[in-house]
Design a protein that fits this description.
The chain is mainly beta and about 60 residues long. It is built from 1 helix and 4 strands. β2 and β3 form a beta hairpin. InterPro entries: Trm112-like.
Length: about 60
């Protein structure tokens, strides 16, 4: 699978809260460091849509 360009990752922010993101290449995920939403990466393309994001279940803070 192709990796997301490092230049592109540096430009991305979470569309839900505008927080910084981390790219987890091995898991094909982009994770917001502020709200913890997880955005999928499909075929090397980040899917940065709030509707496509997941949040871990459990006792996260709001």
């Amino acid at each position: 699978m192709p990796a997301v360009s490092r230049d592109l990752v540096e430009l991305l922010v979470c569309p839900a809260c505008r927080g910084a993101i981390e790219y987890k290449e091995r898991r094909d995920l982009i994770i917001c460091t502020a709200c913890d939403r997880r955005y999928p990466v499909r075929d090397g393309i980040p899917v940065m849509l709030v509707e496509e994001a997941t949040q871990p279940s459990g006792g996260g803070t709001s």
